[in-house]
């Protein structure tokens, strides 16, 4: 689990300015890292840090866009916290979009853990409601509404078969 021991002055002058500028420019989303920034939170990585996400990013910098976690199946999280506890802690800290990128079982377990915890803790349910609001806003601004299923009747058409044949012939020639 990476730790950054720089003092707050250094963090504010070197590490933070790109994020400040991005937030001022209205960036749609920010990915939070699995790094402990000791000057702001000596206990938890930014992914699970309420002082960093809710305090610094949301309140101080005024950012109201999506906060996205890095992959929660990375060793920095799995080896120190476990995915399900990290999902609950990250949501409580203010993360809106939680990534579990390798296993559907892990993803479904994380969803179940979050639903169960939100059912027990009103404050966590409020954080989920805020995340849903930010997702809705994001979707209204950055998507064109519901995406229709693509026309699948073209799958296996003659043009696709010709492309596949060319790809296979290139692969055979490389061997």
Element layout with pairings:
Elements: E1 3-4, H1 8-15, H2 17-24, E2 29-32, E3 36-37, H3 50-60, E4 66-71, H4 75-78, H5 83-93, E5 97-99, H6 104-120, H7 122-142, H8 158-174
Parallel strand pairs: 1-3, 2-4, 4-5
Please write the string of helix (H) and strand (E) elements. Answer: EHHEEHEHHEHHH
Number of helices: 8
Strand order of the largest sheet: 2-4-5
| Overall morphology | globular
Considering the chains and any ligands shown, give keywords for the structure.
single chain, 175 residues, mainly alpha, three-stranded parallel sheet, 10% strand
Description of the structure:
A three-stranded parallel sheet has the order 2-4-5. Strands 1-3 form a two-stranded parallel sheet. It has helices spanning 8-15, 17-24, 50-60, 75-78, 83-93, 104-120, 122-142, 158-174, and strands spanning 3-4, 29-32, 36-37, 66-71, 97-99. The mean pLDDT is 90. The chain is built from eight helices and five strands; from the N terminus they run βααββαβααβααα. α5 (83-93) packs across α6 (104-120), α5 crosses α7 and α6 (104-120) packs across α7 (122-142). The chain starts with a strand and ends with a helix. It is globular. With 175 residues, it is mostly helical.
Summarize the structure.
The chain is mostly helical. The chain has helices at residues 8-15, 17-24, 50-60, 75-78, 83-93, 104-120, 122-142, 158-174; strands spanning 3-4, 29-32, 36-37, 66-71, 97-99.
């Amino acid at each position: 689990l990476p730790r950054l021991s720089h003092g707050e002055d250094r963090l504010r002058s070197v590490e933070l300015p790109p994020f400040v500028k991005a937030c001022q420019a209205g960036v749609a989303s920010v990915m939070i890292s699995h790094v402990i920034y000791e000057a702001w939170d000596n206990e938890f990585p930014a992914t699970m840090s309420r002082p960093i996400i809710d305090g610094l990013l949301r309140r101080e910098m005024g950012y109201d866009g999506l906060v996205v976690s890095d992959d929660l199946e990375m060793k920095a999280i799995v080896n120190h916290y476990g995915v399900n506890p990290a999902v609950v802690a990250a949501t409580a800290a203010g993360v809106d979009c939680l990534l579990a990128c390798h296993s559907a079982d892990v993803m479904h377990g994380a969803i179940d853990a979050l639903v169960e915890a939100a059912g027990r803790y009103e404050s966590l349910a409020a954080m989920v409601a805020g995340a849903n609001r930010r997702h809705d806003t994001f979707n209204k601004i950055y998507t064109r509404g519901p995406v229709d299923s693509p026309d699948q009747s073209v799958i296996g058409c003659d043009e696709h078969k010709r492309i596949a044949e060319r790809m296979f012939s290139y692969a055979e020639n490389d061997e």
